[in-house]
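Each field is set out underneath.
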Amino acid sequence: MKVSVVILTYNQKNFIGKAIESALAQETNFDFEILVGDDCSTDGAQEVIQGYQNQYPDKVKAILHSKNLGQNGLFNTIETLKLATGDYIAPMDGDDYWTSPHKLQIQVDFMEANPSFSACFHNALITYEDGTPSHELNSPDQKTIITVEDLVGEDEIWFMATSAVMFKNGLMYYPEWFLQSTSGDIPRYVILAKQGPIGYVSGVMSVYRKNRGGASFRDHYKDARFLYNRIKMYEGINKELGQQYDDLLKRNIARYYKMLLEARQYQKSYFRRANLAIKYLELGKPDRETTREVVRDYIIPKWMMQVYSFFALLPHRLKESSR
């Protein structure tokens, strides 16, 4: 088996059929299988998947979990990947689909011609259910050879859609920090890039849907649990890479501590926010103006600021009252 197409889904009844059909439409000179891992959907998606297996028993294999495995689909992914027998893995989320029938052939040809590479990816079209105009994920000047260095920075770096990637089977492993992460793509690409460069194949060959049932809409940047999870993930990546990019990743982590200052769980907690502000200043080392604003807004108690303002304005008030 040359390729295992691995489709991961949960409650995507309205989309899963198109995802499977786009995989069935692939034209290749090699064999491939389609594994559909469903994380105990409750919307009827499992019946749709079962129907495709019944219709294409030699091509489609339904992996239907009897309970939700949790962690934002991570364990569904891991368990489904365990069953993949192909030399290469081509993942796809259940609400995405491929637009080129030659996608698998093009990527396999690339991987076979570049045996030292761990993976490759292509461009994808991002579409939105709310009517926002579609746009391509990758720009015309997209770098063609990606290394670990390209995946770490002060900001979160993401430019590879799940449906656009193909990687060698057998390279993935899951350290504890990965198993605790609610993001699968970012850690996966870091681990793959550690074992070989990732190549870029030009051309738009898939669609990445942004819909309200998708993972991207569950990532709440005002939710403390999500933000702490991101902090743990980047701490894990930093350890995984032997602190080689320590300064960059600490500044990235600092961003999440700053976001925590506005987390809805801490809106009325002065002491928690003050501690988070100090942590942000320690890790992020922001400029003087930002430091001053953070100290003023989150570290100095409001009553102290009020007392300071009262005495600072007192001479002016006395002068005004004497007129």
User: Anything to note?
Assistant: Residues 39 and 68 are 5 Å apart (CA to CA). The chain has eleven helices and ten strands. Residues 224-306 form one domain. The first helix runs from residue 13 to 24.
